[in-house]
Design goal:
cytoplasm; nucleotide-binding; Peptide chain release factor 3; binds guanosine-5'-diphosphate; seven-stranded mixed β-sheet; EFG_III/V
Length: 532
């Protein structure tokens, strides 16, 4: 048996307490509200509304470093950390709306679980589907929170069915709403075999939880038993028990079964039950596989991690960037020597920050599962591995995502080609945007998954490379790659623009689905593929 050192035992204990996850949702489903509630439980913020504050102002979120400085803690940052029930929880932000970008997808590469918040009046929406796809590809557990039960929404059964159908995942309702909107009485908690009252009132001594007997009913006299909704929920619960999926922890961990919780984030109802149950099943960090198939255990003493996001400061006075590192093994200490796997370059990590640390100046006790930020002066690219010690480690590079929005770019001043090319190439390598060129004319086209990426691009070109760019929107396009062997340049047209990516691989930018279908009908033998 391996003789465990004291340090290793401590590291193991620390790593096992980590829970690192992202909350995904369609804009307005309630992600911010629920995040605030979770932070409140953890005592990380004193007052609800603090996270909300970041939503105002166009570039408000990018000003987070400034806001953090003023507040002393980083409630507004992209990573929020708090302790609850002897666990250390890291929530990674996945921005929606106009802040949606490839970073949003990449963030999902750095988490061990995902929580999906759904507006119960709306059901599964488009953006959630895309994010969900990435979670599925990674096979991480997904927990669902059906929100806004205090409002009239859709039938719970219909919501769960839609979830299973649209996302192709099995669902297991952990609890079930008793009524909704004005008639919302509470939750029938199948998992804990109890009822959780929405508004505990005097008539039942203000009790929040009512225990249920072995038949899943309230024992003895109770006011709730006189409600027709009570009979209804008993029937529904029976149906779920008989006809629903079986509960399986393994299926949850494999990402094949999503536990579904109902609740109302705004009224802070069902959130704590959700959090506690979630913590019971969400996994602690596990091993990461490197490109040689080697398993890197989170409790390996030497530090390793990968960069999943680089955030540039939008403030022209601060040119620094922050590279976000997901720690995969060991613990991080200020000043450690690491190797950057891509270049084999050795470096000392002295200037770093841990998110949500009491004192931003020091990184204390960051271990596998945690996220740290490294001040970056241009050394890092997205997907880079850094590791401590002699044993070389290189994690798989992060997947590329199929861009959906495209613009043509050119330098405003044709005399400044050099800085234009330098800037574009660096930003592409860094993973800020994707670059394409048209055949023959070599016009530069950049692609993104969110509009914000273009704005950041334009801003950084000007501020970091002194290159003013002119951007002409092409709008949204469907990008599909084609095998070069099958390509005939005459296949391109105005409705399916032929371009090549930065590796020289040919692809078409289809105007719409109709154009893509028309193409496939015309060239049935041609295989078209997309990235993720
Ligand atoms: P996000 O865009 O997903 O972060 O959504 P927000 O948390 O900002 O919520 C969007 C809107 O829905 C806000 O006006 C919230 O106050 C509201 N909201 C969030 N949760 C609930 C809820 O449980 N019930 C009701 N009625 N409104 C909610």
């Amino acid at each position: 048996m391996i003789n465990e050192t004291k340090e290793n035992k401590e590291l193991k204990k620390e790593v096992e307490s980590r829970r690192t996850f992202a909350i995904i949702s369609h804009p307005d489903a309630g992600k911010t509200t629920i995040t605030e509630q979770l932070l409140l439980f953890g005592g990380a913020i004193r007052q609800a509304g603090t996270v909300k504050a970041k939503k105002s102002g166009k570039f408000a979120k990018s000003d987070w470093m400034e806001i953090e400085k003023q507040r002393g803690i980083s409630v507004t940052s992209s990573v929020m950390q708090f302790d609850y029930d002897e666990k250390r929880i890291n929530i990674l932000d996945t921005p929606g709306h106009e802040d949606f970008s490839e970073d949003t997808y990449r963030t999902l590469m750095a988490v061990d679980a995902a929580v999906m918040v759904v507006d119960s009046a709306k059901g599964i929406e488009e953006q959630t589907k895309k994010l969900f796809k990435v979670c599925r590809m990674r096979g991480i557990p997904i927990f669902t929170f059906m929100n806004k039960l205090d409002r009239d929404g859709r039938e719970p059964l219909e919501l769960v069915e839609e979830l299973e159908e649209v996302l192709e995942i099995d669902a297991y309702p952990m609890n079930w709403p008793i009524g909704s909107g004005k008639n919302f009485l509470g939750l029938y908690d199948l998992y804990h075999n109890r009822i959780e009252m929405f508004r505990p009132d005097e008539s039942n001594q203000g009790e929040r939880f009512i225990p249920l007997n072995n038949e899943g009913a309230i024992e003895g006299e109770h006011k709730l038993k006189r409600e027709s909704l009570y009979d209804q929920v008993l029937e529904e619960a029976m149906l779920l028990r008989e006809a629903g999926n079986d509960f399986s922890e393994k299926a949850i961990l494999d990402g094949k079964l999503t536990p579904v919780f109902f609740g109302s984030a705004l009224t802070n109802f069902g959130v704590q039950t959700f959090l506690e149950t979630f913590l019971q099943f969400a996994p602690a960090p596990t091993e990461h596989i490197d490109v040689d198939g080697k398993e890197v255990s989170p409790t390996k003493e030497e530090f390793s991690g990968f960069i999943f996001k680089i955030q540039a400061n939008m403030d022209p006075k601060h040119r620094d960037r922050i590279a976000f590192v997901r720690i995969c093994s060991g613990d991080f200490e200020r000043g450690i020597d690491v190797t950057l796997a891509r270049t084999n370059k050795k470096m000392k990590l002295s200037n770093s920050t841990q998110f949500m640390a009491e004192n931003r100046e020091s990184v204390k006790g960051a271990v596998a599962g945690d996220i740290i930020g490294l001040y970056d002066t241009g050394n890092f690219q997205i997907g880079d591995t850094i590791y401590e010690g002699k044993q070389a480690i290189k994690f798989e590079s992060l997947p590329q995502f199929t861009p959906e929005l495209f613009i043509k770019v050119e330098p405003k001043n044709v005399m400044k080609q050099k800085s234009f090319h330098k800037g574009i190439n660096q930003l592409v390598q860094e993973g800020a945007i994707q670059l394409y060129k048209t055949y023959h004319t070599e016009t530069y086209i950049i692609g993104a998954v969110g509009q914000l990426q273009f704005e950041v691009f334009q801003h950084r070109m000007l501020n970091e490379y002194n290159s003013e760019v002119v951007m002409t929107s092409i709008g949204s396009r469907i990008a599909r790659w084609i095998d070069p062997e099958q390509l005939d340049e005459n296949m391109g047209s105005s409705r399916n623009m032929l371009v090549k990516d930065r590796f020289g691989r040919p692809l078409f930018l289809f105007e719409n689905q109709f154009a893509e279908r028309w193409f496939s009908d015309k060239y049935p033998e041609v295989q078209l593929t997309s990235l993720l």
